């Protein structure tokens, strides 16, 4: 069993970087079991082909345009994922959807894809998330842990070191 | 009255470039290239530690992260006059070369081949005839009748499901598609094989850069990781040997497949050697430094005015004032506050001032760079022509070999001048890729030999002086000249400008209202069907546009993937 959690987004555009920030937090706060890989994909595309090829499940974390209020977290899975790519909710979909389409062509597509999306508050230039989205980070990370649990993968929280 | 075509966005992967053309009598008579998103990354860097800039700038672009990391450390090193240990130069050279090879293979097969290759026609190709044709051109082991049959079956299954996926945006059956079903089948087969091969180049970047898509093994003053051949965590003998295997596999594909395919497609589309010329003032920079100071390079670069190779002016070092003093950017036609004339990047300003799309006013987020007040074309064609002009023997060899092969297939003699064209840019990119594969091999050997001598140094510590210093870092990136310009005061960044390849090529009109390279290259392009302007896409794609880099990465809401608007 191999599962990839892929954080995508541009960390130079505040909330656009939520996907990357979420996987950074996940890596910092949890010890992940064998078979789970976390990738900070930034806004790349073809470079990720090799990593994503043949995985049992792919979990994507990204900023999305769901039409819901900023700070809304959405989960898109199963049949809804291709639709998500067609209607182009996320800024990175062109690149990522090309990678997934290519893997279909080579017969190496992921066994399943789940998207955890966050409606951004701001896409202004800057390296920090807005406070509203920053506050949502623990919830997004908890959702990722839950996704892993559903696949029988137990992530273990790392105890905070006492200074 | 002619027709106005708007294509937005124009790229297959990274969007945000809009092209407008006026078409009269079946030909483009006027054109505008427009970046549709603002890039404010420079602002983020102000006040930061120059040692952190490379990690931030590699997030500018999703396609070419590595190139910004390298240009950034070189800029800071240039400001400090800091030498880089030989091992670090070699490791960086391997990373950037592997990245470039990856970029070129992906660009040709996956981002632009479908402008020339009709996937649906490949379904009619006869595998036996395809194998005969392929074997007459190359000894590549993947050219068997069985392989072509297998691909054809896979493709039929794929197309049969009605889900064209990655092939969705193709212009199937367009009158400008001219390859026979067999050539199309051959090309599609190599498209699939290239998907596998490009991974090897990416693996080299991943191993030496410690991580992709964003490398970590970089530092102002060298590379971050030490060399310890007996440690599992760093660069081991085992890893070095794996890299050598991947280099050999890349070399086989690039020389026996990529170069051959480009020559064949070029021969079948010989009319495209007369289209898309545009600006023939070419700028490239030398790269692959072979010494610690950046005064000797494996690959030469420089300026060629008016396509005249005899007037080549070489750029000789990382500190060459000829490059440093020649670059300016104008915002007269870009959505930034201007009024100060064209500015040198050290004095550059990036303050947004959006108007609307004004044909004769401001119409792009891309600034307009010039070299000694003139627009310049950058990219593989500029690079290869400079190498030929500098009499760099391997470049002369590959150019001659490629043009001879085109000539054999087309049954006519093809001169070097044919390269000043849309198809010529593809040929130059393939030649550049072949040269880079050789460089990859030689840099690998130099690294191994140097370590064998007992030199394991990878880093010189940067020390920032009080007061103001400035520096430029340039890199001959896959898409052409990339330069980062930094002004540092008391150890903090006070100005930062990135002049990226697509800025040069997608430049709007400049301070003197002269058109940029994309705009110039589109003039006189024939357009058979304004509703399906494949010819315009062919020329723009031949530059390998990457607007994510020249401008911002975010997108408008709910925009269609490709919008062709006929007014």
Automatic annotation (TrEMBL), chain A:
Instruction: State the family named in the UniProt similarity comment for this chain.
Output: Belongs to the peptidase A31 family.
The molecular function terms in GO held by this entry are: aspartic-type endopeptidase activity; enzyme activator activity; metal ion binding
Any idea what this protein is called? Hydrogenase maturation protease
Q: Which stretches are transmembrane? A: none
Keyword vocabulary terms for this entry: Aspartyl protease, Hydrolase, Metal-binding, Nickel, Protease
Cross-referenced SUPFAM superfamilies, in alphabetical order? HybD-like
Where on this chain does Ni(2+) bind? 16, 62, 92
Domain of life, per the record?
Bacteria
Species lineage: Bacteria, Pseudomonadati, Pseudomonadota, Betaproteobacteria, Nitrosomonadales
What is one process in the GO biological process aspect for this record? protein processing
Organism of origin is Sulfuricella denitrificans (strain DSM 22764 / NBRC 105220 / skB26)
User: InterPro entries, from UniProt?
Assistant: Pept_A31_hyd_express, Pept_HybD-like_dom_sf, Peptidase_A31
UniProtKB/TrEMBL annotation, chain B:
For whether the record's keyword set contains Magnesium, the answer is yes
Q: Which of UniProt's keywords are assigned here? A: Iron, Magnesium, Metal-binding, Nickel, Oxidoreductase
* Annotated GO CC locations: plasma membrane
Q: Where does Ni(2+) bind?
A: 61, 64, 546
Known EC number = 1.12.99.6
Q: What is an example of a GO molecular function annotated in this UniProt entry?
A: hydrogenase (acceptor) activity
Gene3D superfamilies assigned: Cytochrome-c3 Hydrogenase, chain B
Q: Which residues bind Mg(2+)?
A: 42, 552
**Keyword Cell membrane set for record:** no
The UniProt record gives the binding positions of Fe cation as: 64, 549
Please give one Pfam family short name.
NiFeSe_Hases
The cofactor required is: Fe cation; Ni(2+)
Q: Give the catalysed reaction(s), semicolon-separated.
A: H2 + A = AH2
| Location relative to the cell | Cell membrane
This protein's assembly is summarised as:
Heterodimer of a large and a small subunit.
Its family remark reads:
Belongs to the [NiFe]/[NiFeSe] hydrogenase large subunit family.
* Protein's name in the database: hydrogenase (acceptor)
Organism listed in the record: Sulfuricella denitrificans (strain DSM 22764 / NBRC 105220 / skB26)
Protein encoded by which gene: hybC
């Amino acid at each position: 069993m191999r599962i990839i959690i892929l954080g995508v987004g541009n960390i130079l555009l505040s909330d656009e970087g939520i996907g990357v920030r979420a996987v950074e937090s996940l890596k910092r706060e949890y010890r992940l079991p064998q078979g789970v890989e976390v990738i900070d994909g930034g806004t790349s595309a073809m470079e990720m082909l090799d990593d994503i090829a043949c995985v049992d499940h792919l979990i994507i974390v990204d900023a999305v345009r769901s039409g819901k209020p900023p700070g809304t977290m959405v989960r898109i899975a199963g049949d809804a994922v291709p639709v998500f790519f067609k209607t182009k909710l996320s800024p990175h979909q062109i690149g990522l959807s090309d990678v997934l389409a290519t893997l279909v062509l080579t017969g190496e597509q992921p066994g399943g894809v789940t998207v955890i999306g966050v409606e951004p508050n701001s896409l202004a230039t800057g390296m920090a998330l807005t406070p509203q989205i920053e506050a949502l980070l623990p919830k997004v990370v908890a959702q990722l842990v839950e996704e892993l649990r559903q696949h029988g993968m137990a992530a273990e929280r790392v105890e905070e070191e006492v200074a | 009255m002619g027709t106005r075509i708007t294509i937005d966005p124009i790229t297959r992967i990274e969007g945000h470039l809009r092209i407008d053309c006026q078409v009269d009598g079946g030909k483009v008579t006027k054109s505008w290239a427009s970046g549709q998103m603002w890039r404010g990354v420079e602002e983020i860097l102000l006040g930061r530690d120059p040692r952190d800039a490379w990690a931030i700038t590699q997030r500018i672009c999703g396609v070419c992260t590595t190139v910004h990391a390298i240009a950034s450390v070189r800029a800071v090193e240039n400001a400090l006059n800091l030498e880089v240990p030989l091992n670090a130069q070699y490791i960086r050279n391997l990373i950037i070369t592997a990245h470039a090879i990856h970029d070129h293979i992906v660009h040709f097969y996956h981002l632009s081949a479908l402008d020339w290759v009709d996937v649906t026609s490949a379904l009619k190709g006869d595998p036996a005839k395809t194998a005969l044709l392929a074997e007459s051109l190359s000894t590549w082991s993947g050219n068997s009748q069985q392989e072509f049959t297998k691909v054809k079956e896979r493709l039929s299954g794929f197309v049969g499901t009605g889900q064209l996926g990655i092939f969705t945006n193709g212009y199937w059956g367009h009158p400008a598609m001219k390859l026979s079903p067999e050539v199309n089948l051959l090309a599609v087969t190599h498209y699939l094989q290239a998907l596998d091969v490009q991974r090897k180049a990416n693996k080299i970047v991943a191993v030496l850069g410690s991580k992709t898509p964003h490398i970590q093994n970089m530092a102002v003053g060298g590379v971050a990781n030490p060399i310890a051949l007996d440690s599992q965590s760093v660069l081991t003998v085992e890893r070095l040997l794996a890299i050598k295997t991947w280099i050999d596999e890349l070399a086989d594909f690039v020389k026996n497949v990529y170069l051959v395919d480009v020559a064949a497609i070029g021969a079948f589309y010989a009319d495209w050697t007369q289209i898309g010329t545009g600006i023939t003032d070419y700028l490239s920079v030398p790269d692959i430094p072979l010494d610690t100071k950046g005064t000797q390079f494996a690959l030469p670069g420089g300026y060629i005015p008016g396509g005249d190779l005899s007037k080549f002016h070489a750029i000789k070092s990382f500190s060459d004032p000829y490059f440093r003093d020649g670059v300016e950017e104008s915002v007269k036609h870009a959505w930034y506050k201007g009024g100060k004339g064209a500015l040198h990047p050290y004095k550059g300003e990036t303050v947004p001032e959006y108007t609307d799309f004004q044909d004769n006013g401001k119409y792009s987020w891309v600034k307009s760079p010039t070299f000694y007040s003139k627009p310049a074309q950058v990219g593989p064609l500029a690079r290869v022509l400079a190498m030929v002009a500098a009499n760099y023997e391997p470049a002369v060899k590959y150019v001659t070999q490629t043009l001879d092969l085109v000539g054999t297939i087309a049954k006519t003699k093809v001169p070097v001048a044919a390269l000043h064209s849309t198809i010529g840019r593809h040929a130059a990119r393939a030649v550049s890729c072949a040269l880079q594969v050789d460089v990859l091999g030689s840099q690998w050997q130099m690294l191994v030999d140097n370590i064998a001598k007992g030199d394991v140094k990878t880093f010189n510590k940067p020390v920032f002086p009080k007061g103001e210093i400035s520096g430029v870092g340039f890199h001959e990136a896959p898409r052409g000249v990339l330069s980062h310009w930094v002004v540092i005061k008391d150890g903090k960044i006070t100005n930062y400008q990135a002049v990226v390849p697509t800025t040069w090529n997608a430049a709007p009109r400049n301070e003197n209202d002269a058109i940029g390279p994309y705009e110039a290259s589109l003039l006189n392009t024939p357009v058979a069907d304004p509703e399906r302007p494949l010819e315009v896409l062919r020329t723009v794609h031949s530059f390998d546009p990457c607007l994510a880099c020249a401008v911002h990465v975010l997108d408008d809401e709910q925009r269609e993937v490709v919008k062709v608007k006929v007014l």
